Predict the structure.
Amino acid sequence: MHKYQHIPTSSGLPELLVAPGKPIRSPGQILDTQFVYEECSAKCTTQLLLTKLVAELVEKFFDKLGSEHTSILLQSLESQYKFAKEFNSEATLRFRLWKAGFQSSKDELPGLLSQEEESLKVSLTIQFKLYFNSPQQDSNKLFAHCSKVLKDYVLKHSELVSVTSVKGQHKATLKGLNEDQLSLYHKTDLERQLDHQSPIVHSVILENFLKLEDGALNANMRDLGQLLIDLTLCSDHTVRSKNHKLLTRMFDYLQQK
């Protein structure tokens, strides 16, 4: 059985039912599948709105939240993020849904990019707030998380460059498209993913790195140095501007020592 014939719901998101390799034949099957998809879409939209509400609560009332509350929020956000990211990484599954008509836009594959972006943004915001409220606590998990996000962002940029310059490189990703169509859809999808990730990189991660004290900054940046250098090659102007400011500050600190 294909692992995405029945997507698990540990994150609280609804199930998506897909039968790989089996086209929907009867009107009844079409209606049933359409109902499941619309129900799933409605629940995902509701969850996204709730996540944005959590973001506002964290921004305005974080000091009122206890450790138990923040722990529950982080667990829920992490679960939502993992589900959305896993779904967004499954190009074949998303293509089958698009091919079956479960997407209003002809130029975009179905995805949970907003859910992935918002859950990650709120989760990192909470973790940074906890860190700044108690800098003496173990920060390894936070900076390891940031490293993972930055690495994913850099790799997507590198992949986009490859897709743009080498046609047909991802020929085996989605069956049923010719080489030019495949390159176009993959390129467009990568651009959309990067558009959603860029605000997290410059407004959450790099912005909070800049708030670190000099000693803490350089102590935690040792393992992130290469990733920050790689960010200088990214196309997003705001990311490169914030990163330039961060690297300049780190270099100035090292010169003073």
Summary: Residues 1-137 form one domain. The CA atoms of residues 211 and 244 lie 15 Å apart. Residues 27-61 form the longest helix (35 residues). Residues 1-31, 168-174 have pLDDT under 50 and may be disordered.
